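Example record

One chain of 500 residues, shown exactly as stored in the release files.
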Amino acid sequence: MTGSRTDTPPSRALWPVLASAAGLLVLTTALVTPADADLWGHLRFGLDILASGDARQRDQYSFASDRPWVNHEWLTELAIAAVYRAGGPGALIAMKLAIVGACLWMVWHHYRRAGASVDIAVFAMALAFTGTYWRTHTIRPQLFSVLLMSVLLALMRRAERGRSTSLLLVPPLMALWANLHGGWIVGAGVFGVWASLGIVDSTLPLRSRAARAAAALLAVTATLATPEGVELWRFLATTVRLGRDDIQEWSSTLSSPIALGVPWLAAAGTAAWAAYRTRTRRLDRLVLAVLLAIASFRVSRLDAFFALAIVFLWSDEIVAAWPRRRLAWPRLAAPQIAVAMAAVGVMAMPVAGIARPFAGCLTMAGDWLPEPDAVRFAHANRLRGRMLTWFDWGEYAIWHLGPDLKVSFDGRRETVFSADTIASHRRFYAGDDKGWDLLDRLQPDYIWLPRHLPVVPQLERRGWVAIFTGSSSTMLARAGAGPFTPITTTPPARRCFPGP
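Predicted structure tokens for this chain:
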């Protein structure tokens, strides 16, 4: 029957089973957590902050750093260190699951409180989960940006529904965010556009427009509440840019059209469909959707913000555009409840078997990782001094070999290295003739690089000697250094963070 809000009894009885199956799938998918290349550094720096009690640390891990360290993620690193110290890798995975769960709960709560039916709320949760998946897949500061963007968007929607007092929470939210991750810039931009469009909207009450103006001003000011103060603004003004195509997540969505493109299209398609069905003329909705769509297409790491903006800001349009036939919460009899519980139990057993190996293991996998024997070799020979390193391995080396063996380059990038130092490393890795000045300038004792790099055979022709050669990497020293003790190669095995 047209307009009915209930479904037929058989489907109603099946709904808890389907919902449980979907929940188990989401949990299993979210549980698998690979180690990000920067996690070793985040943990080490966080432990240093815990030990010293000082958020501002001097760099003791790189011999090539040439600018004061602006650690704009110090609070995230402190949280990572505290959680790791409390429960190891398993606790870090639990922290990640809690953040993902909190984001999904906010979506559910937002839609159900607005009167959306179960199927609409579930759709919105699915859109949020898939749209943020690649930014919550690993444990990194961006996890907190996803969480706080969800909170910010929820507060904006509450203000739109007449609760302007919700905006009082925005300034402290931005102060917290500015100490957790640089994604606060996007949050501030979204809030600024939304507030500005509201301020010039003559259809809004003067009180509401004034509340947005005050909240925007206080929110920007609140981002000064960091250990760096105004220096953080200066740093970001000189370093935030789009030209980071050497890092995959800073490249276009087209760099991975399936993994990145499908979630992006889902968010964009949902907004386009809702706009068409409802003939919306909300300028703030359209402007933010277009701006974030373009930005996230150009820089794929912004895709989570785009998806969340569609889920929260377009909720009214999504609900209005949804087909009128909707699922309602089923009222189940005792036999139906028993069948549902039995089905869920049967499904949970194989899921538990699949998920168990990942419950306490931050998986170390992928072609980017060096073999564990390289670290074992460095330890066996008690290597000390200066080591010119491959960018991806910098923070892995900091954890396992620092500070006695200092690295030349790592994932902190602009926070400790000048643009010239970064560019010089890139030229050196490529075997560019202009890159040799880096070697002359840094005078490293050792060099640790992937075997496939063009510069490796060039180094050997220039007199550098391979002192360790593994399946994926090679360590070189100057001719005449040593002697070095070889090690027995270990067979391949499953690797869990922190390794080796």
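Notes: Residues 349 and 355 are 10 Å apart (CA to CA).
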